[in-house]
Task: structure prediction
Amino acid sequence: MTRITPLEAPFTRFADWMAEAEKTEPNDPNAMALATATADGIPSVRMVLLKDVDARGFVFYTNLESDKGIHLSANPNAALCFHWKSLRRQVRVDGAVQPVAAHEADAYHHSRPRPSQIGAWASKQSRPLENRFHLEARVAEYTARFAVGSVPRPPHWSGFRLVPARIEFWEDRPFRLHDRLLYTRAEEGWALQHLFP
Result:
């Protein structure tokens, strides 16, 4: 049976689950698998960190010249999967991806530790690296370049917001009779239905 729920309903549930995960997961409860695809549809998945979530969607940041940045430029659709082993829960999200506003990216960049800000300049993410010394030399170069004052956000570094079309909550139950709740975006809110495990 399907029913319509308010716009904030799945995000409220997600916030509750995230709060529980923050108490039980030993490392990075905000870690999520991000799946993208090339323009030709070849999939790729990697772990990233969720940096913000609200009723607009799920936000993460990256080097725009990385593989994921290039994929999302060519094919602005993605999927996320959170897996909290300690809670035996999972959340899957899929939908369209859009760039965050410049002021959001600036605010997040300036909230990061200074070495991470420098690292955003130094790393040519996803491209071949001759050796570790080459990376360390680039870090030293940008550390010297921005020795005084704040570190500006690199033009090739920003964020994306996944605007969900579907959000599925999965919870382990005995004998593999798991609970699965699927929220699907509807004009007046979210359509909610239970799925067979």
Q: What stands out?
A: The longest strand covers residues 157-171. The chain has one domain: 3-112+155-194. The mean pLDDT is 96. The longest helix spans residues 9-24.
